[in-house]
Amino acid sequence: MTNQMFGDNLARCATFGLRKVTPRACVADGKPHLRAFLTDVLEDLGFVTSECAKADELGAILETQLPDLVVLGVSVDGIEVAKILETLLRQKFEGKVLALGARESIIVKAVWQVGGEYGLAMLPPLTTPFDAGTLRERVAMLLPEEPKPSPAVHVPEALHAGWLELWYQQKVDARTLVRCGAEALVRMRHPAWGVVPPGYFIPEDDDPCFLRLSEFVIERATEDWRYLFEQQSSTDISINLPVSFLKNRHAVRSLCQRIPAHPAFGGLLIEIDSAEVISNLDLLIDVAKEVRFNNVAISIDNLGADWPALMGLDIFPFVELKVDRQFVTGCANDRLKRTLCRHIIEFGKGCGARIVAEGVETRADFVAANELGFDLVQGYLFGKPMGLKKFAHSALAQPVLVSK
Questions:
Q1: Which residues touch 281 (CB under 8 Å, ≥6 apart)?
Q2: Dihedral angle at the C-alpha atoms of 127, 131, 137, 138, nearest 10 degrees?
Q3: Which CATH number fits the domain 155-393, given the four candidates 3.40.50.300, 3.60.70.12, 3.20.20.450, 2.60.40.10?
Q4: DSSP secondary structure letters along 146-184
Q5: How confident is the model over 202-216, as a mean pLDDT?
Q6: Strand ranges in 331-388 using DSSP code E only, listed in sequence order
Q7: Is the confidence at residue 152, as pLDDT, over 50?
Q8: What is the C-alpha separation between 373 and 365, in angstroms, rounded?
Q9: Is 35 exposed, middle or buried (0-12, 13-18, 19+ CB in 10 A)?
């Protein structure tokens, strides 16, 4: 399948009978915040989404949107769930149906059993809490085959055409739930393919284009900070850079010169993958010591079982440790993950660094992260990455699964 899968305008024209190249999903649930959460996750998986709260709304969607998947949340009352099943049967829905509800829920089992008895294509029920990976496994058969992650467009072409931009995902204080920063993530907005994720255009570390891409990220992040400051208030921004960039002394000096001198600027945080940090400890310690007087600091990203390699340092100039999502997601029910998180938190606090939990996607994992003592949390539970203007106008809504 070609990269045309990225273009909504192209995908709308292509069908396999009633089946679209880009799959469509309808979320039927009575709670608006759950519908919003599920549609966000499904859109990130590649679905075009719609949503409804009642059976009569679903009927119109089945006729006009032709969804391939109906996600039926059983937070609606039993009578409405029955009406939704009747609507699916009456309109001879041929797509998949995924029931979603609490573990050991009687009504979830009833929906799955009754739907199957009446000939609906019922997927195995999805019980809460769940993460995006579990949902993806349930609906994998509906997702188009992804092309190989080779660059769709060369970075110089994208830079020249102005197709690159930064999206932002908020970091949230684990105790107050106040937004206190944002991580910048590079995206390409191609005129034909739509928004292209970085896996399709990020060059290799030793590629000369990586330096130009890094310079773009730095320049755009500082411009975006000024825009955010004008729109609302100062937002601390973190960016991702490779170690190869920091090995270039001229590039580091140029970075320091681009830092805003505005008194409201809280500093620029550079996130470096933990494996790269550990492999280049002496270099990064020197760089961190050098740039900190220019309002720049280094964060260790994706830290996991390799954390003991950081012990015993005479100087620890890193201001933040971000625990890898694979150890945060599911930590509420996994003793080994909780133990590793606790060790990193104790180590980080002893070094004076703040600790961030990555990949918080469920209420249970947020509660666990809070109890463990994480300073900040980041993940889809609190918001997915979004474009600059949308991020600027988004208020910190009540977390989706944190509320009762």
A1: 309, 313
A2: 30
A3: 3.20.20.450
A4: PPPSS-SS-HHHHHHHT-EEEEEEEEEETTT--EEEEEE
A5: 83
A6: 354-357, 376-377, 386-387
A7: yes
A8: 12
A9: buried
